[in-house]
Design goal:
Number of domains: 4
Structural class: alpha+beta
Shape: extended
Radius of gyration: 38 Å
CATH superfamily of the largest domain: Ribonuclease H-like superfamily/Ribonuclease H
Strand order of the largest sheet: 3-2-1-4-7
Helix content: 40-55%
CATH architecture of the largest domain: 2-Layer Sandwich
Low-confidence stretches: none
Mean pLDDT: 83
Length: 495
């Protein structure tokens, strides 16, 4: 926007001094388009000075072609015009087509202001928040978002996947947070909810149907490409992206979910209610809450159920991790029930293992009691067990053991000594000692022991002692018969 003084100067230079538009623009430091528009507002466009339009002879043909083929792309239209003698460049052609409004446009569609009764409807959707690095790999971060359509009171919870168990858990936690359930829930074409859709016919996932029956609400799909029907949850997701997440992008999953309820009850609750700007969302929610459907006595079991086949090793593979089971349950099928917090493993109806769920990747989750009997029964497995433990806790030990084997030394003894040092001094000092031994070209457990003892003396700490003897029957079951020392006295006197 230029000032009135500059506009008057443009008019004077053009009408009185006879300057061309480009000359005016260059000397006044303006764009030539700005000068052209300023002159057009004053009615000072001179046909004799205007360059003839290259597209003008083609206008009748363009209008006729676009009326017959309104979806014809501009690139194809340009090639047709070029074959008919159009001399201009493709970019100029595109701009002129847009400026002249030659392409027929679809009539604008009007939308009704959709209003709902209290406790009548909620809208649910997933929101993607990028990838997070976890132990052993990366996982996608998703937010389950539910909003009450009347009051705009919302709930959200972060997950490391968008699978059905997380989707069901989000619903269960949302109804608990709301203090009741609504009568209708709107869903988009989510893979978590919809198995198949053909036109207006939709097939929801059976587990979602079971949960809807459990809480007494009716699941309904929104029409395809009708964003206005679920605009409340989309605005809630946008609000979440701009107000909650920017300052918490580096937070852990647990920290995000711990901060969410307080943020909802304080920051989000005080925003203005769209239907009455003199009230806030919290006041509208208190009005709606009394109309919510009461919750059943027991929450819906939001878990995933699958069958797994145990092979020779006593571990069940699930979601990129391994979970231990008792060693006498191998070579059979078991049932895995998994929710967002724990993994339960059943042999028929018997619960044989329960673990806290790991959201890392390529992790091994073990219960030591599952492997104690196997440890005792298989003596030869001890060295392999110790070697695997060293590889997971002290990855550098693998290179040291390779050098031990290459130099034809007893590998099982080396593993036993390194495990003993690991139990004695701890993981971090062990890693540094193995690194130093490899750097000095002395890959031997004794070198590692000397380094650990030297560093302990340097730090002024007493030598570390093992808490208990190694689990060796030759030591734990050894019985020593004491002899009377008086028997040695006569021999001393004779000497």
């Amino acid at each position: 926007m230029i000032s009135l003084r500059v506009r008057a100067e443009i008019r004077r230079l053009y009408t009185v001094e006879g300057w061309r538009r480009n000359t005016i623009a260059r000397h006044l430091g303006l764009h030539h388009g700005t000068v052209t528009r300023a002159l057009a507002r004053e009615g000072l466009t001179d046909p004799l000075r205007q360059r003839p339009s290259m597209i003008k002879p083609f206008l009748p043909w363009l209008r006729e072609t676009l009326e017959r083929y309104p979806q014809l792309p501009a690139s194809t239209l340009y090639e047709m015009a070029r074959r008919r003698g159009y001399p201009g460049h493709q970019d100029h052609f595109r701009h002129r087509i847009a400026e002249l409004g030659l392409r027929p446009r679809k009539a604008a569609e009007a939308f009704l202001d959709l209003r709902t009764l209290p406790a009548e409807q909620a809208q649910v959707d997933w929101a993607y928040f990028g990838e997070r690095q976890v132990k052993g790999g990366s996982r996608k971060l998703w937010a389950f978002v539910a909003v009450l359509s009347y009051s705009r009171w919302l709930y959200f919870q972060f997950f490391y996947d968008a699978r059905l168990p997380s989707f069901l858990a989000g619903h269960v936690n949302a109804w608990t947070f709301f203090g009741g359930c609504v009568r209708t829930v709107l869903y988009d074409n989510l893979k978590s909810a919809v198995l198949e859709r053909r036109g207006d016919t939709i097939r929801f996932h059976p587990r979602l149907r079971e949960m809807a029956d459990h809480y007494g609400y009716d699941p309904r799909p929104v029409a395809p490409r009708r964003g206005n029907e679920k605009g409340r949850v989309e605005r809630a997701i946008r609000y979440l992206r701009t107000s909650f997440f920017p300052l918490r992008q580096t937070w852990s999953l647990q920290a995000l979910n711990q901060a969410a309820p307080d943020w909802i009850r304080t920051i989000a609750a005080h925003r203005r209610w769209p239907q009455n700007r003199h009230r806030n969302v919290e006041q509208a929610y208190h009005e709606e809450r009394s109309n919510l459907l009461p919750l059943p006595s027991e929450p819906f079991p939001a878990h995933e159920r699958l069958t797994a086949q145990l092979r020779q090793s006593p571990y069940v593979r699930f979601d990129a991790n391994r979970y231990s089971v008792p060693h006498d349950r191998v070579q059979r099928s078991v049932t895995v029930l998994a929710d967002i917090g724990r993994i339960r493993i059943f042999d028929a109806q018997e619960l044989i293992a329960e673990h806290k769920r790991s959201w890392g990747k390529q992790q091994v989750v073990e219960n030591p009691s599952h492997l104690d009997d196997l440890w005792k029964a298989k003596h030869r497995a001890r060295s392999h067990r110790g070697q695997d433990r060293l590889a997971r806790i002290v990855p550098q030990a693998e290179a040291l053991l390779l050098e031990v084997a290459r130099r034809q030394r007893h590998l099982a003894t080396a593993v036993q000594r390194l495990v003993f040092l690991l139990d004695t001094y701890g993981a971090e000092p062990m890693r540094r000692a193995v690194d130093e031994a490899l750097e000095h070209g002395s890959p031997h457990p004794e070198t590692v022991r000397l380094i650990l003892e030297r560093r302990a003396r340097t730090q002024g700490s007493p030598p570390s002692l093992p808490i208990s003897l190694p689990k060796d029957p030759r030591l734990t079951e050894l019985v020593v018969q004491p002899h009377p020392l008086a028997d040695y006295d006569p021999e001393q006197e004779d000497s």
